[in-house]
Amino acid sequence: MSHPASDITSVLKEGRVFSPSSEFSQNAHIKSFAEYEEIYNRAANDPEGFWSEIAKELEWFSPWEKVLDWQLPFAKWFVGGKLNISHNCLDRHLKTWRKNKAAIIWEGEPGESRILTYQALHREVCRFANALKAHGIEKGDRVAIYMPMIPELAIAMLACARIGATHSVVFGGFSANALKDRINDAQAKAVITADGGYRRGQELPLKPAVDEALEDCPTIKQVFVYRRTNNQFITMKEGRDHWWHDVVANVSDHCEAEQLDSEHPLFILYTSGTTGKPKGILHTTGGYSVSTYITTKWVFDLKEEDTYWCTADIGWVTGHSYIVYGPLSNGATSLMYEGAPNWPYPDRFWNLIDKYQVNIFYTAPTAIRAFIKWGEEWPKRHSLASLRLLGTVGEPINPEAWMWYHKLIGKEKCPIVDTWWQTETGAIMITPLPGATPTVPGSATRPFPGIIMDVVTKKGESVPDNVGGYLVIKKPWPSMLRTIYGDDERYKQQYWSEIPGCYFAGDGARRDERGYFWIMGRVDDVLNVSGHRLSTMEIESALVSHPAVAEAAAVGRPDPLKGEAVAVFVTLEGGRKGSEDLKQELREHVAKEIGALAKPDDIRFTDALPKTRSGKIMRRLLREIAAGSETIGDTTTLEDISILAKLREDEE
Ligand code: 7RM
Q: CA–CA separation, 476 vs 460, rounded Å?
């Protein structure tokens, strides 16, 4: 769980209710709670009718014959329909005045800006799509994308989608090793990358990591490299590596979008599960298009004239759904920023909001907590008057952070949408509709229309109000994951076996007397560190791959900034002694194996790990130890721990 017990208690007592202003409600897509409930009930009674009404707002090359084919746990949506999400994000708008509307407004960390209109974005996507085709990339191929936050990342995704190649975006903060695993799991044919990007005033090189990964990636035939940082030390491998600017130099800017089956694989996105091996979450075209389109429209109450900004990295699902596909399929103007929130100063975000007159702002609680720490003088230097709606995603938001966001950023007039969803769900599942739903700090409130959720026991029985249980989704939804890439069995096992007949999200939750959901955090071995998912097993396998380490256990401990911090307990090989140097070495080792985001915050060396009789590491106990002690010294003898462990064992 992401919050200490005291926080949960404060959340239980939370009684403040914030309703949207009547002006906001009157102008909103969904204008009242009664209207939300009416739509919700209609959708619950006839989900297929509801989703097909929405699907008709998009363009289809051929209509579907059947809305849903559900063979638990395998779903097909809009069966027989043909469409292309790149067509819906681009071509559809070119027939209207949106042709010259800004699709992407981009600012690089060093300060340069670029504005791509829908027509310009369409042209760049077509050109790059033609370049991909000219290099042998075909419909059905997998393409890995490892890029900084530049427009070419969105262009690369849309170009893949246009020709029916399945993209697998790997967050630029992941290591060469993590990239290699993802490329090999998806058997990708090509990589699209850049020489590097900018982060906190530094160049973050990417191509060298690609080179390192590709030493062990037999399926990769082509590498496309965008020149972003003008890095002079990049090496290009003859016959394999191509500069982006070269491959688009002589191609046509016309590229017909492939007419793809509704269930054509759109993308794979890897996420951490309960085991060491990341899962390739597979999303397909039709259902994902429909859910991301309508959630963007209703949750963000998107209007034609809005400038919308989601601060996520496109390497995460939030960036896929709410920087690229959702906003663009709505014909919105989506702001994209390359760098860090505190570069050159901790007011970069507020500066961008005023500079581009951002109306809708969507960020993570961990970012809000960092802003609180940096001090209120930074937002106070800016007007922020253009804002009319705020959102959060990624982890539970503590009421204190919610209130700060509401007061200092929203000036007490912007509704806040706390949106719960996952890589697996593809789109927002639990959320207020800003003109309709009264909000309570810390609650994601109610499910989106068409989404049937519950809090249940292990056996699948609903629990009473205000009793904790497992969060489940009871009916299929269009943007649900279709499988774990290449592993149907694991898909079944992971999501559909735990609780009979339901999709099990891995989160604990409770529902209050208003029917509002309160997410309590993960109940499995998944950590949520600054809104990033990490599995304890993944960190443990990284640690034990170091020659000095015999055994390792990773747990989360509550952290005021990151939500959870990574605490690890390590036993060493044959009599080795722990030292500060070794701690540093292990941190770097984990960064190399996974990425800097997984670096342990606390490392404790110990002689033994507390285990149950059956040999399971007693994580609950380690969590308590990790959370309890202020000093992060070595636990050279786990004497006191093992005494406790024995007590626990006896309880077993
Ligand atoms: C979008 C995203 C998913 C996990 C999920 C939760 C946690 C996400 C909220 C939240 C409380 C929220 N995808 N989570 N949103 N917890 N309130 N509004 O984050 O796949 O990376 O993570 O994140 O535990 O299961 S994700």
A: 16
